[in-house]
Automatic annotation (TrEMBL):
Residues 1-19 form the signal peptide. The lineage of its organism: Bacteria, Pseudomonadati, Pseudomonadota, Gammaproteobacteria, Enterobacterales. This is DUF2541 family protein. It comes from Klebsiella pneumoniae. Keywords: Signal. It comes from the Bacteria.
Length: 126
């Protein structure tokens, strides 16, 4: 019973400090926080596209999100609409290069798609 209570208490401890603010670095909004459970720095970087599009009469936007949390790196595309539960085919074009189609993993809520090779993707865009 004591182990169960201890586990519940530990699970209730916030994993990151509060109050971290996003800072603008070029076209990115970046937030860095110390993870209190791992003493590692968690980082989230968001690049919101200045281009918006209309779908069903609603203005929508797209963002690229890069995240390193607890030593795991993610890169995903976040959109303001439901893409479905199947892994979407994402078209990417770097600078003046040829557009490339890549299959990404659908997020649970259907409004994001994760790069299967986050670190390679980050290197491609840097």
């Amino acid at each position: 019973m004591k182990k169960t209570i201890l586990a519940l208490c530990v699970a209730a401890i916030p994993l990151v400090s509060t109050g971290a603010e996003y800072v603008t670095e070029g076209s990115w909004q970046v937030k860095k926080e110390e993870n209190k459970m791992t003493d590692m720095t968690d980082v989230v970087a968001i690049n919101r596209s200045p281009d918006v599009y209309m779908r069903q009469g609603i203005e929508r936007s797209t963002s690229i999100v890069l995240r390193c949390r607890e030593g795991k790196t993610d890169a995903y595309l976040s959109v303001d609409e439901y893409m479905g539960i199947d892994d979407p085919l994402i078209t990417i074009r770097f600078d003046g290069g040829k557009p490339q189609k890549r299959r990404w993993s659908a997020a649970e809520g259907g409004e994001a798609a994760f790069s299967p090779k986050a670190i390679s993707f980050i290197k491609d865009i840097s």
